[in-house]
Design brief:
single chain; mainly alpha; 2 domains; two-stranded antiparallel sheet; 1% strand; globular
């Protein structure tokens, strides 16, 4: 009988418990989930019904049901608009430059910080690097004009006091592009290091010991141990960044743009915003839908390529 009881216990332990058991045990956690789930359902899923505007000649007074269905005519109108191709070009240009310059910087910073052995210096450096992430783009834009302004900017004041000529960082298209990318790198590089430093802490210490035995110096350990060990994290972050190539930061462009630099500041998010302000609801919705669909396609394709190369991928 004791043997039968012993055999029954594993069977009871292996039996799947119903939803009621977990609700009773962890009801406090499920209560905390109510508000986030409501936010997700209302603003993420119910909002999808608004995408129908992209296929309607939408009139506010008539609503969804009263507006005329026009199929893909709105998309044809969007793609033939004179600002569409410049906006598409600028969106791709700015986001590719961000990918080239902003993506590697957190990795480089994480590798450098990992080599710092003075704890207080490492903590202070990390805090200073993380700080820009928590600043609003409104604040960053105001700081940018105070630093890079032609007449009263701090940097140009230093340049002119040294006998040089003022540089139009935010008033000339080429310099604006450089400043836009530079500020983006500065704002994002610190926050990205958190993820890579967390991945580095999970690297097996025995790998470093083995590398030391083989005579590897610090640079060689970084190149042949650390980087291969965090490669999967790098790939996942790269896939997520590729999904943003057709997006971009609306707040960033709005904070840094001005009437003197229209060449590169006209992007898809800005075009959606301008059309929405002009009551072109169908056109702005169609353009936003196009942007989102391309982003999803880029994520799926890059994920498939990563898996073909032997990585875990994102999905």
């Amino acid at each position: 009988m004791g043997k039968a009881k012993a055999n029954a216990e594993p069977a009871l332990l292996g039996r799947k418990k119903g939803l009621g058991f977990y609700l009773k045990r962890d009801w406090q956690l499920y209560v905390l989930l109510i508000l986030p789930m409501l936010h997700l359902i209302i603003f993420k899923y119910l909002a999808y019904s608004g995408l129908s505007i992209a296929f309607l000649d939408y009139k506010v007074a008539k609503g969804y049901m009263g507006s005329k269905f026009v199929g893909l005519d709105i998309f044809k109108k969007v793609f033939s608009h004179r600002n569409f191709l410049p906006a598409l070009r600028n969106t791709l240009l700015l986001n590719v430059l961000d990918l080239v310059f902003s993506f590697p910087m957190p990795i480089i910073l994480a590798l450098l910080l990992n080599e710092v052995r003075v704890k207080w210096f490492k903590s202070v450096t990390q805090t200073l690097l993380y700080l820009p992430h928590f600043l609003s783009w409104v604040v960053i834009g105001a700081l940018a004009y105070q630093l890079f302004g032609v007449n009263n900017g701090v940097i140009n004041s230093l340049i002119t006091s040294g006998g040089g000529s003022a540089i139009p960082f935010l008033q000339e298209d080429g310099w604006w592009l450089f400043t836009y990318v530079f500020i983006g790198v500065w704002q994002t590089m610190g926050w990205g290091t958190i993820i890579y430093l967390a991945a580095i802490t999970n690297v097996n210490a025995e790998l470093y010991e083995a590398a030391k035995v083989d005579g590897a110096n610090r640079w060689q350990q970084c190149l042949h141990v650390t980087l291969p060990s965090i490669r999967s994290t790098i790939v996942v972050m790269l896939i997520m960044q590729l999904g943003k190539v057709m997006g971009g930061s609306f707040e960033r462009i709005l904070a840094l743009s001005n009437a003197a630099v229209p060449e590169y500041s006209t992007t898809i998010p800005m075009l959606v915003y301008d059309w929405f302000r002009s009551n072109k609801f169908s056109e702005s919705t169609a353009l936003g839908l196009f942007q989102s669909v391309i982003g999803v396609i880029l994520v799926l394709v890059s994920d498939r390529v990563a898996k073909r190369l032997g990585e875990d991928g994102l999905l």
